[in-house]
Amino acid sequence: MTNLEKFREETKNWLDKNCPPSMRNGADPDIPVDEVWGGRNAEYKNPESKIWLDRMGGKGWTMPTVPKEYGGGGLTKEEVKVLNEELFHIGAKQPLLSFGIWMLAPVLLEYGTEEQKKEHLPKILKGEIRWCQGYSEPGSGSDLASLSTKAEDIGDKFLVNGQKVWTSYADKADWIFALVRTGAKEPKHDGISFLLIDMETKGVSTKPITLISGKSPFCETFFDNVEVPKKNLIGKLNAGWTIAKKLLQHERAFISNFGLAGAVAGAGSGRDVVSIAKKHLGEENGKIKNSFYRTEIASHKIKEHAFGLTLKRAGDEGGKASATASMFKLYGTEHNKKRHELMVGASGVDGVAWDGDEFDQNDKNLTRAWLRTKGNSIEGGTSEVQLNVISKRVLNLPSQ
Amino acid sequence: MKLVLTEEEQFLKDTAKNFAEERCPISHFRSLRDSNDPKLWDKDIWKEMTALGWPGILIPEEYGGSNFGITGISVILEECAKTLTPSPLFATGVLGAFSITNFGNDDQKQNYLPKISSGDLTTALAIDESSHHNPADTEMVAKKDGKKFVLNGKKTFVIDGASADLLIVLARTSGNKGESSGLTLFLIDSNNTGIERIKLDMADSRNYANINFNNVEVSAKNILGDEETGGETVENILDIGRIAIASEMLGNAEAAFETTLDYLKQRKQFGVLIGSFQALQHRAAEMFCELELTKSSVMAAMKAADEGSNELQRLSSLSKTMAGETLHLVSNEAVQMHGGIGVTDEYDIGFFLKRARVAEQIFGSSKFHTERYANISGF
Predict the structure, then answer these.
(1) CA atoms of A254 and A98, how far apart (whole Å)
(2) According to the model, what pLDDT value does residue A210 have?
(3) For B370, which of A299, A312, A384 is closest by C-beta distance?
(4) Per residue in B204-226, is it b (16+ CB within 10 Å) or e — as a string?
(5) Which of A83, B9, B34, B250 is deepest in the core (most CB within 10 A)?
């Protein structure tokens, strides 16, 4: 038996013993499903969600490639592939959703000191600390580098004053990774630092923002004379912009998957543009009855197919991620918006239902989901910013 | 299915790129257009292509070919399209070679394939009968008379029809216009009595003809595949042709885009390079995305053809639609972004626009294939 075969055997046995029944294929549909984000104040409707998180986090398998000394699984790429196959095989639920894993951990691994890695990575991987991202400010959206939240050097600490906006789930997060100004305003990229701040520190407060969808996934975050230990600085002082850009790439790659993942998940849940059109507009010989909608949906489906193949090709080519991340972010989010517009349009009046018993819950959910997609092409860099990045970095077109 | 080229395929692509750039730059096409050669392709270039083995790429080794597959021939067409290289490679090396290799009987293979491999025989596929592609609308009658058939009718827009030695003709042996059953394919020598070829002058200055059939007698031995199954057979041939022409159109679009990008980096107005204007940058970036999607679609379709995937039909329509839409966009934007010189005959970019609109019609427009995609997908 090769080492890899041995690993598969052990993994299989371990999963068999440790993955709770409600966290895998064949789970009782009456048991509530948690969206597990972890953190100090995590609440679980199903206690097995917590057990599953603790066991996977304990093995470091929430981020299996991270070295063991930082709480990771210390697995090779080949072993991770085996692990994923075995998890897929039993239909295991993802134990943890985490901005810490998706965005901060890669940055810590690249730029953090030994001490910082040892302090933060294990807590991220175990889901003990929930992170949020402090980037945008009221005056700094697309022009992120113009940010003005100030971190003043007061000896052994920084004194932070300012405001962040669009911080996802800041009201539920334990810590925030933030971009702060530690140097001059000009040149604007050179005076920025990357700082970790405990949300329980005196002077930090949050306020949820209600979106046009009626939901509040984002907050405003305020810093009023917040004292932050200097050891929480990641990388060098005034060298935070490089880290920020790196992190944005991780974020863009993540958001661009919304479009396609949404379409795939949608097809299973009934929120699929074809089935919606057939239901609301009628069907004739298996075809959508209204030929105008049918044409538009067909064109959209063709683009969706081509986009899916492009993601696959990028993977097969070994992922030249940085050049294509902007394209995927742009296309994925614009495509997702278009898909929702088609679903809303094809649903007629039902597609703009807001509340009340006269409407089907699916239709009301669609209205909210449609409105939420409008943010996709703004957050993580607007579509226009992505077009700028492609023009300059990929096509090498001149700056003015 | 991996969406990357194999080493062999990449080698063919690189060879074709060098060949096109060195042996037939766009000036080669221009001189053919301005010459009186009714073929509109060059015999010597065709000989050189033959020496490289290109006409035999879809033909088995026992008939003098190399059997390198649809992906192999498609990437060659893509590279040749970047310099608008005219040649019989599409009509003969793809349509003729594929048809006879896959549907010919032993005699037919023996008769024709070695001659195609050696560059001594060219072919043309005669399907359409009106201004729009639709094989089911075939009206041309093939009437059975003992062991032979008598053909009467007219074929339109036959690619390489003005010069091909052998015609592959779709005719109706039963049923009515609009039905895809009752069709049969015939292999017919273009010098047969009763065949009248009328060379067409098209916007892209390539070789096309309308062909009249007046009591053309064909032996039953010259049926390609089986009698009455031509509708199915021709769809298979057409799907391969659509993928190959989509790859060619991708090459057209890539070249027009590259040329335009270069222009944006050279041309100054208001004291600055026009490529620094955001109004042009964003449109260029959008074209880049469409080109990437088209590359993936064509790649998936080529690979599906080589792997015998049951997704072939859908991917064929996907690739022809994506290539058509993208080339349409890029050819229009290329002319616009070049400004005044873009609409002069002296400058090459207009050739891409003219080639684009003709190629968009070959074996079904984007509209035709969007509808077909929806039908296959079940909505």
Answers:
(1) 12
(2) 94
(3) A299
(4) bbbbbbbbebeebebeeebbbbe
(5) B250
Residues in chain A closer than 8 A to B284 (CB atoms): 391, 395, 397
Cβ-contact B355, B252 below 8 angstroms:
yes
Pairing of strands B141-145, B148-159: antiparallel
Instruction: Using an 8 Å CB-CB cutoff, list residues of chain A that contact chain B.
Output: 274, 277-278, 286-288, 294-295, 297-299, 301-303, 305-307, 309-310, 312-313, 316-317, 324, 327, 330-331, 384, 386-388, 390-392, 394-400
- Contact predicate A163/A221, CB 8 Å: yes
Instruction: Check CB contact of B370 with chain A, cutoff 8 Å.
Output: yes
Tell me how far apart the alpha carbons of residues B355 and B291 are, in angstroms, rounded to a whole number.
Answer: 17
Decide: B138 and B132 in contact? Cβ < 8 Å: no
The answer for residues whose C-beta is within 8 angstroms of residue B216's C-beta and 6 or more apart is: B150, B151, B152, B188, B192, B193, B194, B195
pLDDT at A270: 54
pLDDT in tens, B325-370: 999 999 999 999 999 999 999 999 999 999 999 999 999 999 999 9
> Amino acid identity of A358?
E
Smallest Cα distance from B100 to chain A, Å:
31
Query: What's the confidence (pLDDT) of residue B378?
Result: 95
Q: Which residue of A has its CA nearest to B267?
A: A398
Preceding omega of A187 cis (within 30 degrees of 0): yes
Residue B116, chain A, CB below 8 Å: the answer is no
Q: Looking at CA atoms only, how far is residue B379 from chain A in angstroms?
A: 4
In this complex, is the C-beta atom of B312 within 8 Å of any C-beta atom belonging to chain A? no
Task: Locate B70 and state its tokens.
Answer: 């649809």
What would the two tokens of residue A338 be?
């278009």
What does DSSP assign to residue A187?
A: S
